[in-house]
Amino acid sequence: MKLSEVLEITSATCIVGEQLASIEVNHAFASDLMSDVLAMSRPDTLLITGLTTPQIIRTAHMLDLPAILVARGKDVPQDVVDLARTTGIVLLSTHDIVYVASGKLYVRGLSG
User: Fold this and answer.
1) Is the CB of residue 71 less than 8 Å from the CB of residue 94?
2) Per 3-state DSSP, what percentage of the chain is helix, strand, and coil (rounded to 5)?
3) pLDDT tens digits for range 1-11
4) pTM
């Protein structure tokens, strides 16, 4: 699934990621525990989280995750935005809760 589809399905906004349309993800992983993300994620995975700390970007970068979807309409601090831009991580934000965003993407074919 292209990240542009993720944007549309979850009614998200793109905070960082001009390359949005060309990136594809095949899986999603929802967690606020970065230790779980480290243990369970694959490089073609979209991270769905409610966290807005620099650790989400660092974790995604370490695992070569292409994108993060921040749930619950949280404001993302500027230092996190800057880090996403520097590392090339696409950063999206949706007002959906994690459960709803995950469900919408699952129904449209994005596997866990």
Assistant:
1) yes
2) 40, 20, 40
3) 999 999 999 99
4) 0.95
Phi, psi of 111 (to 5 degrees): -80, 165
CATH of domain 3-107: 3.40.1390.20
Contact 87, 65 (CB under 8 A): no
DSSP annotation string for 89-102: -EEEE-SS-HHHHH
Distances (CA, A) of 41 to 60, 61, 73, 78, 87: 9, 12, 23, 26, 18
Residue with tokens 């993800």: 25
Nearest one of 32, 39, 41, 40 to 97, comparing CA atoms? 32
Whole-number Å distance between alpha carbons of 73 and 95: 4
21 token code pair? 């349309």
At 62-92, the pLDDT tens digits run 999 999 999 999 999 999 999 999 999 999 9
Dist. CA 66–CA 101, nearest whole Å = 17
